[in-house]
Design brief:
By secondary structure, the protein is mainly beta. It folds into two domains: about 5-85, RimM (Elongation Factor Tu (Ef-tu), domain 3); about 100-160, SH3 type barrels (Roll). It has helices at about 30, 70-75, 100, and strands at about 5-15, 20-25, 35-40, 45-55, 60-65, 80-85, 105-110, 115-120, 130-135, 140-145, 150-155, 160. The strands form two sheets. A six-stranded antiparallel beta barrel has the order 1-2-5-4-3-6. A six-stranded mixed sheet has the order 10-9-8-7-12-11, with no helix packed on it. Strand 4 and strand 5 (about 60-65) form a beta hairpin.
C-alpha cells in the first residue's frame, strides 16, 4: 500500500499524550478528524494510529491518539512523519493535483523545449512554486499560475509551461 505525508510530529504537548503536528496537507480538518486513522512512519511497516481528539494551537495541530494516554507513550513519535493511505486521499477538482503527482514530471515549454524535472514544490503564499531541476543550470522557479502553467498531463508525465519574461 502507498502512503503520503500529511504532517510531522515535532514535539509532545502536555503530559496527557498529545503530540504537536506540523501539518503538510491542505485538508487539515478532514485528515485530522476524530476517528480517522493515520500511519506513523517508522522502520518496517507503518504504525496505524486512530485519532481520539484534535485541536489547533499556535499554528500547529494538537493530536491525541486512542490508547496513548501519557507523554511517555508518545515521546517515541517525535520527529516522525504522519501519513495517510492512498485509499484515504480526498478526491480533487479538475486542475488540482497532489504534490506527489507533480513531483518528477518533465517540464517543456510551449515551443517544445525541455527544461527539466520538477523536484520540489514550495508554498510561499498566494500560489505554489514548482522548483525545476535543470541539467547544468541553476534550478528554475515556476509560479503555478494560469499565465505560466498551460497543461498538466499526468498520463504522459509532463507539464507544458509558457515562460514569462524574467523567469529564465
Amino acid at each position: 500500500m502507498e502512503y503520503y505525508n500529511v504532517g510531522k510530529i515535532v514535539n509532545t504537548h502536555g503530559v496527557r499524550g498529545e503530540v504537536r503536528v506540523l501539518a503538510t496537507t491542505d485538508f487539515i480538518d478532514e485528515r485530522f478528524a476524530k476517528g480517522n486513522t493515520l500511519y506513523l512512519q517508522q522502520s518496517g511497516e507503518p504504525l496505524p494510529l486512530t485519532i481520539e481528539s484534535t485541536r489547533q494551537h499556535k499554528g500547529f495541530v494538537l493530536v491525541k491518539f486512542v490508547g496513548y494516554d501519557n507523554i511517555n507513550d508518545v515521546e517515541q513519535f517525535r520527529d516522525h512523519e504522519l501519513m495517510v493511505s492512498a485509499d484515504d486521499q480526498q478526491p480533487l477538482d479538475d486542475g488540482q493535483y497532489y504534490y506527489h503527482q507533480i513531483i518528477g514530471l518533465d517540464v517543456e515549454t510551449t515551443d517544445g523545449r525541455h527544461l527539466g524535472k520538477i523536484k520540489e514544490i514550495l508554498s510561499p503564499g498566494a500560489n505554489d512554486v514548482w522548483v525545476v531541476e535543470r541539467p547544468e543550470k541553476r534550478d528554475l522557479l515556476l509560479p503555478v499560475i494560469d499565465e505560466v502553467v498551460k497543461n498538466v498531463d499526468l498520463d504522459k508525465n509532463f507539464v507544458t509551461v509558457e515562460l514569462m519574461e524574467g523567469l529564465e
